[in-house]
């Protein structure tokens, strides 16, 4: 059962260092607070070593990268590796520009990531070393479906083996895999794609889950993914006539805030393959 | 009828590159998603050429400009011009500082803008080459009113002729003009001025409308302005006792999300002069 | 009675220059608008002198400082001092990194602050010249409680005397002190700590209150602190089943928007010591 992973987050209140984009950063902070974690943001190269040292883990998101913050990502990542902290990469827009693709790949080469979380187009880009995506959203041609599920699970496991990272590919169906085991997750609603930032929130929350559950990080990340999707379902169900994506955004964070182990256990829809 | 302009946005889902301020960027992304567009944000000079190339248009907003992002604006703008993309300028705070005024004017000199959208003080600053405004809000002395409407329409048309851009001046009464034709728009509620970012949202949404309606960009921008004002009316009408500007902010984006061609046609209040 | 301080803000609509972090900046702007102030954000060194000159005061928040914005803070602070404007320091994360601690202390050495507002760990760091805090939240060991209240009031008054600044220490119990007088404030709910940004909002709002009430800035800051806490109480009371920290965030700003002098007078819980 995944619920105890959430309980551990609420009990340990892990502090997460986020180097993340300025588009969704406020929602990232509030989602992290909602699940019981604690956020700190810092991207300045002169600041990140100290900040990451007092945290339990680091979430690197390249959504609005710039020269200065890229330098911060490498310094913070290396320091976190030294300290044995959890480190997650969210390669936002990898495939959409050379800078994003190259930065993500260089980060993978120089830093050991416990977790890499992205949409399928971003993850494919990392695996191929190049890519073209439609902006920050996944190409439809790449989507994980019931039809290509076996193949995609093999891809996720293979990429996990190659990188020694837990691979989380999120979309209509989510995959969370290490080299041998893959959680296939069916939570979530399509309306979540009309809100910016649920992926960014998930990356930060998944970092907190991995910090608080060091003995089974794979399960912890799967729990975070289920929780986010389930929060989307609850948020969507609670929408009233006239409400739309902005209110849904709030209700998803509210649903995380009100989630407990029991409701996560009951609502999680997944199989292990 | 303006409703079909919205239908075209929903059908084509234009990808808009935003170089915009960090104050309102999240609302910009959600408003764009709400109307059927798709956002990507990037301001790093090394990143913007690639990013803008995969988009249909570019929204440049100088609200929290810095040396690095200014460089990004010029690179992205020139690339967009080369590619024949829609380009919009939102000169936030032009007139409030030399850097903002000079940057906006230099952008106008070096980049061809399809659309310039601002409040009256900002647009006057661009037209005069200098200005003083009270922060990022329009000076009351400058406001478009029923009394000075003829004069202001002439000003908008004249400035459009001079710049070869569609000029959108937003306030209590909004003007959307090319050199010959001016939409005078009466949608909106005064309470929108107690929320940050409705102007920034409109600039991004107007870019999406112009991309999706290439044969009549003037009408497209007018449709975006009507839609934003109408969303303000709907959002304000839906406010309950005890709710204020923060909830209004959410309800406006929700109202865009729920807007369809029919409701836009029925709710749009404008005349063509 | 503190209510007239709010009335003065609504009447004078002070323009506040904010150099603040990108995590909570949108909420800062909307909270300032909610109380009757007007926000402008600018951190670029080439821009801040002009911007701060047209404002009534400056709010410096080091929450996501970088080399460029730090330079902006010093330039804007010195210019504001020259002009006799209200200047507030919010030393977010002082104690959590050398850069933050050093920057905050250097700012205090080179700029005259009318007000310094932070949590107890941040303020202790400034008073000692060094510190260690758990991220951006206060250490529990440091909290102001009924048991240590006398000692903490003495500390706040002493630090005010040393710095010639009004010292606002916020937490479960808030202290707002000059060298001789201390407002001890009991407004607020613990759930506010599960939202990012109520402290940042308060700093900007307190700047507006001090600008609009030049003859008694101490009382003005106390009024701002009471109002923020009272807004938290109202927002929390209005939460419905299933709502959480994201909705609470909105309701707090809404409560500020709807606050009037009378409700502030009735709801403020404080004693003067």
Task: Give the topology.
The structure is a homotrimer of 273-residue chains.
Chain A: H1 3-12, E1 15-19, H2 25-35, E2 38-41, H3 45-53, E3 57-61, H4 67-83, E4 86-90, H5 98-110, E5 115-118, H6 120-128, H7 149-163, E6 166-169, E7 174-177, E8 182-185, H8 198-212, H9 217-237, H10 245-258, H11 261-267, E9 270-272
Parallel strand pairs in A: 1-2, 1-3, 3-4, 4-5, 5-6
Antiparallel strand pairs in A: 6-7, 7-8, 8-9
Please report the total strand number of chain A as a whole number: 9
Class per helix and strand makeup of chain A = alpha/beta
Report the sheet with the most strands of chain A, covering strand number, pairing sense and barrel closure. Answer: 9 strands, mixed
Helix content of chain A: 40-55%
For the biggest β-sheet of chain A, the strand order reads: 2-1-3-4-5-6-7-8-9
The termini of chain A sit apart by 16 Å
**H/E element string of chain A?**
HEHEHEHEHEHHEEEHHHHE
**Largest interface summary:** A-B, 35 and 34 residues
Q: Based on the structure, what is the oligomeric state of the protein chains?
A: homotrimer
Q: Could you list the spans of chain A in which at least 5 consecutive residues all have pLDDT below 50?
A: none
Strand content of chain A: 5-15%
Chain-averaged pLDDT of chain A: 96
Radius of gyration of chain A: 17 Å
The total count of helices of chain A amounts to: 11
User: What would you call the shape of chain A?
Assistant: globular
């Amino acid at each position: 059962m995944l619920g105890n992973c959430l309980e551990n987050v609420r009990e340990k209140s892990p502090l997460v260092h986020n180097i993340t984009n300025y588009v969704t950063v406020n929602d990232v902070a509030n989602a992290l607070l909602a699940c019981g974690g604690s956020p700190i943001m810092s991207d300045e190269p002169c600041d990140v070593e100290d900040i990451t040292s007092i945290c339990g883990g680091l979430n690197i998101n390249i959504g609005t990268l710039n020269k200065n913050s890229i330098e911060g990502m490498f310094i913070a990542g290396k320091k976190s590796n030294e300290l044995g902290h959890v480190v997650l990469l969210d390669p936002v827009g990898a495939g959409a520009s050379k800078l994003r693709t190259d930065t993500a790949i260089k980060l993978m080469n120089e830093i050991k990531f416990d977790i890499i979380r992205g949409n399928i187009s971003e993850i494919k880009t990392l695996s191929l070393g190049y890519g073209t995506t439609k902006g920050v959203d996944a190409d439809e041609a790449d989507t994980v479906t019931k039809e290509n599920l076996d193949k995609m699970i093999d891809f996720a496991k293979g990429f996990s083996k190659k990188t020694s990272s837990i691979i989380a590919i999120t979309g209509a169906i989510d995959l969370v895999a290490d080299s041998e085991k893959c959680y296939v997750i069916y939570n979530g609603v399509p309306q979540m794609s009309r809100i910016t930032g649920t992926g960014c929130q998930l990356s930060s929350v998944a970092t907190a889950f991995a910090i608080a559950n060091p003995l089974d990080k794979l399960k912890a990340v799967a729990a975070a993914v289920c929780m986010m999707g389930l929060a989307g379902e609850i948020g969507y169900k609670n929408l009233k006539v006239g409400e739309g994506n902005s209110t849904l955004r709030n209700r998803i964070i509210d649903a995380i805030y009100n989630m407990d182990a029991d409701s996560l256990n009951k609502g999680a829809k997944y199989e292990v393959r």
